[in-house]
Amino acid sequence: MRRSVLNVCFGAMLLLPIHFIQAQYQLEIIEQPVEARQLDGCVRIASGQQGVPNVRVDECDHAWKQVLDSSVTDKDGHFHLKPKDQGTIHYIRISSPGFNPRLYTVRLSKHWSPTLDLEINVST
Which of 45, 41, 71 has its CA nearest to residue 58? Predict the structure, then answer.
């Protein structure tokens, strides 16, 4: 009896740390504005060309508090937002479980790239 209680306690001690292991998320702020023609594009893993599905892409107000529009990337990482403000500066937040959330300032102009390519990093 005593041996079985010890085995149960030892087994519980081995499983306990697994429950508390979680990724550490770090907010990443991209200081340099990204330039594009529209708020359409692709979210990719920063270390490669693979598009990331199911990433939430939010257009926010200048204080990053209010969400003006939202989209989720498709299976290839593509998204589309319709700007609520017709100005040239837009504030984009991307986030997904297992990835560090990122904040981008986007400048729109008809003279720049037709698509918006954003990167996201795996959290550690």
Answer: 71
